[in-house]
Amino acid sequence: MESVKSRNNVVVSYLIAGGLIILVMIIFGILMLLSQGGVLDLQPAAFYQILTIHGTGMVGASAFAAAGIMAYFLSKYVDLSKNVLMTNLVFFLIGVVMVIIGVFSFEYASSWTFLYPLPQLSANAWGTIGALLYLFGMLILGVGFLLFYLDAGRAIIKNYGSLAKGLGWDVISGKKAEADAPSSTVVASTMVVIINVTALTVGAAVLIMNAINVINPAFTVDPLLAKNLTYAFGHIFANSIIYMGVIAVYEVLQQYTKRTWAVNKVFLIAWTMSTVFTLLIYTHHLLMDSVMPTWMLIMGQALSHANGLPVLVVTAYGALMIVYKSGIKWDVGSGLIFMSMFGWVAGVVPAIVDATIVVNQVMHNTKWVPGHFHMYMALGACAMIFGFMYYLAKQDSSIKTNAADKFAFVGYAVSIAALSGSFLVSGVLSTPRRWATHIPEWMGPALFGGVIGVLAFISVAIFVIHFIRFIRIRSKTVPGTYKKEQLA
Amino acid sequence: MRNFLYGMILLAFLIIPPVRNTLESIMITHMLVQIPLLIVSGWLMADVFQERFKAFFTKWNENGIAGILLVIFITAYWMIPLNIDRSLEMWSMELFKFGSLPLLAGIPLRDSWKKISSLVKSFIIFNYISMFGLLAWIYIEAPVRVCNSYLESDQEILGWGFLVITVSLILYMLQNVFADQSEASP
Predict the structure, then answer these.
(1) What local confidence, expressed as pLDDT, does residue A378 receive?
(2) Which CATH number fits domain A2-481: 3.30.429.10, 3.10.129.10, 3.60.20.10, 1.20.210.10?
(3) B-chain residues near A146 (CB < 8 A)
């Protein structure tokens, strides 16, 4: 038996590392927008380095914190290895340091997509060492995550028999009653294991392909194959963040409303559909590549539209139903969790629009796309993460929220909605994305986004400070020993 | 003991000059038939070694990690084209190949596989999936002859062979994780 505090330390470490990195990444985001808005003189080389670290850091840190959520709740149902969680933490920190050194000390700036042949073909903007530090840093990060998901898969198979049963296929086929279905946490975790093990294995291959090309440019890759592999890794991995975060929605709302989130056949079918669709829809990143096989482009559009529906509708409807007339006592944690459903629903709409081939050909390389993923990730996935941080603080300590926390909740909602709106407006104005320099006609929304980003920074800083206060307080509390059904 | 005999017979069969020459005359049979069979011969012979050197295996390969790392290093070493070339040109390297694959890959693989956890097993398999996928690309796309002893067309065929293995491993893992293991799990 180990203490609850000891057991939760790992999850707390995941969350504080994720929260702090997200906070620093917001500063980089503000700098880029102010530079595009014409009020800050950022050299293009510096801009692209910041763009690289911002994208990599936001996805990596959010995924890491979301993995903490998954570990915390999944541990209620299966036995996860604490050593693997610690190994992932160590690999994450080593990878982050390598990426930071590669970007800022060796001026690597390919953006997080490291799209072949850019790591090697930099026109002397950066050299071999910078590229290799970044690529191998990402590889080490990936190995840590892969270990975590393999362990989660192992634990699910051990308890439930197979990943098919983790997804509830025996219930769907009628062999088992709905009452015996796996919990929503297990279903979501199984889905994430399947998609992320696939993504990370593909990612390892394409990262090493790029590394070999950097070392010996004579070894080339078919650029279309490289792009497919890169997005099969990047899109799936980034997409998985919200599927890990939603576990907090299921679990926290059940506890707040004292109601059960019913897992029925519709719920299980929706998650199975999303498992398949999420693996296949990365092709919506290649709709502008006319050399792609036509059937893949059509599949990219059709399945992207379809993927907007199953889990999202089931979860959003479920969230509304579980809260309706439940007498729930709202606080910052539950508020953020509930708001995340709006962020998810609203944030997916611009993506579905962009996944339509005729629209994509006009909009995909504009700031419309950052408009989608800022709303989807910040107001959806990150709201789940911050909501969980408040939930954990409340569970594990006597800490109270104050007026600053309530201000931060409102400030976060308003600032992210406004920031996402400014990106979408930029998209409508045909402002290209990933450009360091803007013409005057494009500057207004960027400047607005940079200014409102300061409010987002203040809000997230308050969230993180609350969590740090909790960490200090919990050193004196959290008594008792670990009970499997109690905590992670 | 019977397995040991089978292993010895297999190893002796692979050493016979006509068999050795035939397998090594084609790149894909050299790398995807001879080398795996050498590992299999070591796997078959392992129980006698495990019995005879029980204390050694207990002391040096208690949890299987040291052994499996040795397997990874030895198999990775024999995936490097330069080493394949050398084994055809230098008798010492050929001797090392026939010694290292059964003794340093086959035997430790059998000793380690039952000791390592299912997590490590999965990690090893996924590591080989990405490694074989990568080798498929390297051998198919290599802009030059990577082995002096084989033609470019030979290495392309080998690349496709690696791709078949990659796909087979993926299919194996898929059936493994989706098939019910309720009774198989400890």
Answers:
(1) 96
(2) 1.20.210.10
(3) 123, 126
